[in-house]
Amino acid sequence: MFVPIPVLVAIGAILLLLLALVLRRSRRRDPLLGAQQFAYRPAAPRDWPQATAPERAPIGEGETTLAPEVEAQVIALISAGRKIEAIKVVKDATRMGLKDSKDLVEALERG
Question: Which domain of life, per UniProt (predicted)?
Answer without folding.
Answer: Bacteria
